[in-house]
Design a protein that fits this description.
Length: 288
Amino acid sequence: MAERKKLTIPDLYAMVERGEKITFLTAYDYPTARLEDRAGIDMILVGDSGVMCLLGHATTLPAKMDFMVEITAAVSRAVERAFVVGDMPYMSYQPSNELAIENAGRLIAEGGADAVKLEGGARMAERVEAIVRAGIPVMGHIGLTPQAASLIGGLKAQGRTAETAKQLIEDAKVLEEAGAFAILLEAIPARVAEIIVRNAKVPILSIGSGAACHGQLLIVHDILNLFEAFTPKFVKKYADVASVMLQAFQEYIADVKAGRFPTPDHEYRIPKDEWQRLLELLGEGERR
Ligand code: KIV
């Protein structure tokens, strides 16, 4: 049974130091976060992917700060041990350092997150530096960065040419120098990720970027088979919760239609004397 003490950045660094892989999942709600924490997950990302998984949007771009703060707070309330990372939504940090600090502060103060994550390499280094200078830990995120999908040619693997791979290696260095406490690599070739890991002084986390990274992230709705729109190559499904839910819904519908639910076991009772008084009040005396 994992220790229940809240994990901190030094704890994550110590895990890397002793060669222990960091486990990382997304969560967007209280019950899911509670179960992940109870299972012993090390980190939870309250991702802007929540607007796709929970609200049915086709991209992450419609995510709003208020929504992210609300779901981050729900996850933080659920967690005893896991390190919680709040994701900065589209246009909550891109326009200016001031806006970035203000919104990162909301995820920490109102959302209860332990750190924030934002997308982008060298072009976002100034934002990372500004938020870190304000005392807030920042996780960098490079490779497939969904908020910049149109800039990077769509939701597809990145760094598959020598030039783009070199750029990612440089981006990771720049983010580390800007003060990022960890860097997430999304959908980049495993061999390129290996070079980044070899050069890094901070934990390098992977979502679809190979086994050499210090930790692995997946989206909870992907591993439970609850997200139907598409399944990236890097996803491993650990349970078919969709089938379990579908079967439960079908059985409920069939029970109600057939009169098998509710039964007396699911009904509230009125005490006999109160029933008698009610009949009298209704003027129905002993008739019933
Ligand atoms: O929002 C999210 O879940 C993410 C992951 C895809 C890395 O940013």
